[in-house]
Amino acid sequence: MAARGFLVASLLLSCLAVTCYGVTFSSLQRTLLVTASPTPGQVLKAGEDQKITVTWSLNQTFPAGIDSTYKMVKVKLCYAPISQVDRAWRKTVDNLVKDKTCQFKVVAKPYSPSNNSFTWTLERDVPSATYFVRAYAYNSEDVAAGYGQTTDAHKTTNLFEIQAISGRHASLDIASVCFSAFSVLSLGGFFFMEKRKAARVSK
């Protein structure tokens, strides 16, 4: 009876540890096959309606049932090592709770072992950097249970670049000019009305 109680307590502590501290990336198996449409070295520009198509499926070389706990897949855009140098806010940490490698959500979908695809339009706030795509499989407790990525284990192959929006846009300039003109006219109208009011009082 005591042994059974100890086992239950151990299981509870293990679950609590996973919930509070997360799992480590090194403990996950690469059970998903992931591909993305950008070619190696391709440069994409954020904010110009450019798209990335991502596909993923179960790696069939693993034993049947390896995905029995998978409930959800979350696909993310991740920084390559070259874009993490001297940037602590992008740092890779083995503990997934603290890891900053993959900061941009592409999509989250219920898990299916095959025929998964999603086309994502690059968001305007994606910074200039070198990237790859990674997909995590999550269990019913929303804990990572497997993964796959478009690059190798060292994150040096099949990388692509994204250039952030730079410079000023005509639409912003026009809006700025209109707002400034409206402000000047409003201020002039205010002083004119105040002057007329003061002239009436003086009479």
TrEMBL record:
Annotated InterPro entries: Transptr_NO3_Nar2
Molecular functions per Gene Ontology: nitrate transmembrane transporter activity
Cellular component, GO annotation: plasma membrane
Pfam families according to UniProt: NAR2
Signal peptide annotation: 1-22
Any GO BP annotation: response to nitrate
Keywords: Cell membrane, Membrane, Nitrate assimilation, Signal, Transmembrane, Transmembrane helix
Membrane spanning stretches: 174-193
Family: Belongs to the NAR2 family.
Function description: Involved in nitrate transport.
Protein name in the entry: High-affinity nitrate transporter
